Amino acid sequence: MKKVLSLYFLLLSFTILGQENQPWRSFFSYNDIVDVTESPSKVFGAAGSAIFEKNLGNNNLKTITSVDGLKVETITAIHHSSAFNRTLVGNSNGLLLVIKGDNTIVNKIGIVQETTVAAAKKKINSIYEYEGKAYIACDFGIAVFNLETLEFGDTYYLGPNGSEAAVSQCTIANGIIYAACTNDGIRSASIANPNLNDYNQWQQLSAGQWTGAVTYAGGACFSDTNGTLFRLINGNLVSFVLMPSQIVDLRVANGYMIVTSSNVVHVYNPQLTLAAKLDYWSLPENMASIFTCATVTSETLFIGTQSKGMIAVGFNGFNPENITPNGPERSNIFSLEKTPNALWAVFGGYSYTYEPDYSEYGVSKFNTKGWTTIPYSKLNGTKSISDITVSPANENLVYLNSFHSGLLKVENDEAVLLYNQSNSTLESQMFVPGFTNVRVNAGVFDKAGNLWVTNSMTEKVLKVLKPNSQWGTSYSFKNLTQKTITDNYRQMVIDKNGTKWIASLLNGVIGFNETLNNKLIVITEGQNGNLPSYTATCVAIDNNNRLWIGTNKGLRVLPGIDRFTTENELTTNPIIIMEDGLAQELMYEQGIIDIVVDGANNKWIGTANAGAFLVSPDGQQTLFHFTKENSPLPSNSINDIEIDHASGEVFFATDKGMVSYKGTSTEAATDLSKVYVFPNPVRPGFEGDVNISALIDKANIKITDIEGNLVFETTSEGGTVLWDTRAFGKYKVASGVYMIFISSEDGTQTKVKKVMIIR
């Protein structure tokens, strides 16, 4: 493998490909619809991190994500231009992406580069098309974008004396451009004026706070923050309708004007009579959610919601249909857990300083049938779910760790029992008397089937739930750790000796073993362990029995976990690498969130703001460095990493969505009985690698043609070997049957397989 460097692009162009042909997959939520748009044949929906389109002719759904090149910040507005067959995607940081008709994506950063505008004021609020130009309403004013040349033109600053003014929406009616400003009233000017970048050319039509502006029925219409829709008649604003709450979306589509508030949508025809009305309460419970936007095509309403995705319903209001792509409940996944047949995801938890978020989210599970979610309403009121622990003996038995409510037992996807301070040894935090807050985290099963969890901000930190569902002894760290009732705990691993290694906020890493007379050793910064910080975030034990420790300021390694049984003080070491001829500390000062060991003993390291790294078993080589800039990662803030050890697929949960990379390092098998080869046969046009999987570690693999000529040889590290179908990496082998001879290191196990290659 090769070292991959971070790259920064001023102009990016990607081609949308089918994900089955790529080493990456995406797993985004489409439940939070922020905007919609339409073409004559499609409807487009935008969530915060990805978009999708529904073909109205064949009902096909297609998603467009970071894997396809849609590298967004946070999507805030979209617009499809039927005239140019291009879809514009606006972002919170001013980034504008263009999806062209040939399925390429162009990244335009003109607004992002505008140095005179503060970063917080570059948000794109809406996009309006007029005579080949897109008028982009931003938090600083209006930017003009040429839809044919894909170049930015003038920028209009509309505030007093040319200052920045947040524009919610703009429109052009009867030769006048109108800008509905969030705090600076309605501004107007002649669209024919060549000097609109001069603020003196703009007039104030009305003061106040305005949320929308459209052109309909021969004139301009405006919405204010009180939920009133006005028509401009003879230069005067005339109240037209008062919505029950603030108008969150105002648009014109396919001959109709659509007015959306949080709980009702009004659709008006050109005679300004009500053609359709749909309210929140008329939808089934599983579709009802706060409305965010809506559009119309073929007398069908397409309504974006805050948590239920997109709803399609006819003007008669009958038979509403949810047309949202399958996905997890949210894109911001806090924690993952991979089982043999499923991937679990939870969305709540705590802040960087371990403050619970008190979130009320469900729990999502992904398997071969797609995503399903257990809603919060069926989780016994369990808030701030931060982690998942699955029984190694029964993957239908799941425990959800809550950083507020305790420990929830789930069987066959149904909540069974919530353990808290009233029915278990779990305790509420002790730092604030009288405030009930049962912080449970870091669940791990030991070899005997006992479930160990940490119970933060208590004196008896470590709790154990026996296989018979009885709670065992609770263990205190009070005598050897500082600030016990203010400390919080993140990850825990249990080694082959039964020692629990626990990452903590204030006390570094705590090693504890109840079978060694409750022996406890604290590894922290300075002379007490050489950690770069007393805040440890993650721990992992590799295949050489070394303990890898991530902190908020870097990485350390404990050379051998067995030392805990014989020594009373433990010191960790940094990994020193040579870079450009200079000795450097690996991951120096990096905020590390997660460390996961793959089947070849490589380490996947997730960071707080620098993406994900794959380093060699000893850490001396950086094999991959995936970032948002050089890979489909949707964000450089990694929340969690999980590996499917059977397939080698690596899942990256970030604050803006999850993607996976189809790695090659799978867990080694114990024998060669289940070795398989895929694809087989290799058909014409295939450009990937042949996978030889279910291998034992350090197996020797030789591939020959049918006449016995050697074309490839290697030794496995873990359970998978890849062959690029080339003879020793030089040229592609010809069509034919190739023999694969596999033998263990000592020669006691052998296996022969075949693969057919068709050119």
UniProtKB/TrEMBL annotation:
Domain PorZ N-terminal beta-propeller: where?
43-203
Which residues are the signal sequence here?
1-18
UniProt KW Signal keyword: yes
Alphabetized, the UniProt keywords read: Signal
Q: Which Pfam families match?
A: PorZ_N_b_propeller (PF21544), Reg_prop (PF07494)
Q: Which InterPro entries match?
A: PorZ_N, Quinoprotein_ADH-like_sf, Reg_prop, Secre_tail, WD40/YVTN_repeat-like_dom_sf
Q: Does the keyword Signal apply?
A: yes
NCBIfam families in the record, alphabetically?
A: Por_Secre_tail
Protein's recorded name: T9SS type A sorting domain-containing protein
